[in-house]
């Protein structure tokens, strides 16, 4: 009887939690189909409207929506690929060459920098980007992201657990170079960690707002979060347009997570328990 009651309470809690978390997404979809005046009605609309096509036409008239969507997509992909390479090869050096000069100091610096807020050094960072001539380009959103302290520490833990020192030493005895060991042995063994890091990196890039706001001036270069903030007219903010643009921009993330969820979950759980 006690077990049945506990199971029932658990199911009710899960269902209520699911409804609470999914309702904002559903309401966003509903608002994207209503007119600008209807979204301010009381009670607010809880059913889909008939203005989806008109809202979509108005959205594309106000901003280059699909161009902004493409900007976010390719910046996120390039940033994630760069992070995967730089973080994994750096972690390989830290994990498999512990006696190299400055190795431990560098590791301490990387771990310590995780605790520093990313925007703490935004002024010198901006001056550096301006000195490079990268303002109003996408380069500041791609190149500096390679220095991702959490990504390095994440891959460091994976390599320490997944790649035994004996395997590395035997490959070296067979004449393999360090880069060949990294490319042909280490990368396949840490694939779950790479998958999880790729998703996290892409999500961070996709939803980034502060950095694009600081470095981008041209509307055709805007990422999708930045472009949606410009949906204002002389009559006020275009709520349905913002909801429609946000709904479309969230869709690729949901699809990507569905297809990559197994890699993401295995990446989060791998290494949690030592063999």
Automatic annotation (TrEMBL):
Its main location: membrane. It comes from the Bacteria. The keyword Oxidoreductase does not apply. Residues 69-260 form the ABC transmembrane type-1 domain. The lineage of its organism: Bacteria, Bacillati, Bacillota, Bacilli, Bacillales. The chain crosses the membrane at residues 12-30, 73-94, 106-127, 139-159, 180-203, 241-265. It comes from Lederbergia citri. Belongs to the binding-protein-dependent transport system permease family. Pfam families: BPD_transp_1. GO terms for cellular component: plasma membrane. GO terms for biological process: transmembrane transport. This is Carbohydrate ABC transporter permease.
């Amino acid at each position: 009887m006690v077990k049945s009651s506990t199971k029932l309470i658990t199911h009710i809690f899960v269902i209520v939690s699911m409804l609470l978390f999914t309702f904002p997404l559903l309401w966003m979809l509903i608002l994207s189909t209503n007119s600008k005046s209807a979204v301010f009605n009381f009670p607010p609309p809880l059913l889909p409207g008939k203005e989806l096509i008109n809202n979509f036409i108005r959205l594309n008239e106000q901003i280059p929506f699909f161009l902004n969507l493409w900007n976010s997509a390719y910046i996120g992909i390039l940033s994630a690929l760069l992070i995967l390479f730089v973080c994994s090869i750096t972690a390989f050096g830290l994990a498999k060459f512990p006696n190299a000069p400055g190795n431990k100091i560098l590791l301490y610096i990387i771990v310590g920098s995780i605790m520093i807020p990313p925007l703490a050094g935004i002024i010198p960072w901006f001056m550096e980007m301006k000195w490079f001539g990268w303002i109003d380009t996408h380069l500041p959103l791609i190149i500096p992201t390679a220095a991702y302290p959490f990504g390095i520490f994440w891959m460091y833990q994976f390599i320490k657990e997944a790649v035994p020192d004996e395997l590395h030493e035997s490959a070296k005895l067979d004449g393999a170079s360090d880069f060949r060991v990294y490319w042909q042995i280490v990368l396949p063994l840490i694939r779950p960690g790479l998958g999880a890091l790729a998703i996290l990196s892409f999500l961070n890039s996709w939803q980034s707002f502060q950095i694009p706001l600081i470095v981008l001036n041209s509307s055709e270069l805007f990422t999708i979060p930045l472009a949606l903030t410009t949906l204002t007219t002389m009559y006020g903010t275009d709520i349905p347009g913002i909801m429609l643009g946000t709904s479309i921009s969230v869709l690729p993330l949901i699809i990507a997570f569905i297809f990559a969820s197994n890699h993401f979950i295995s990446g989060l759980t791998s290494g949690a328990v030592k063999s």
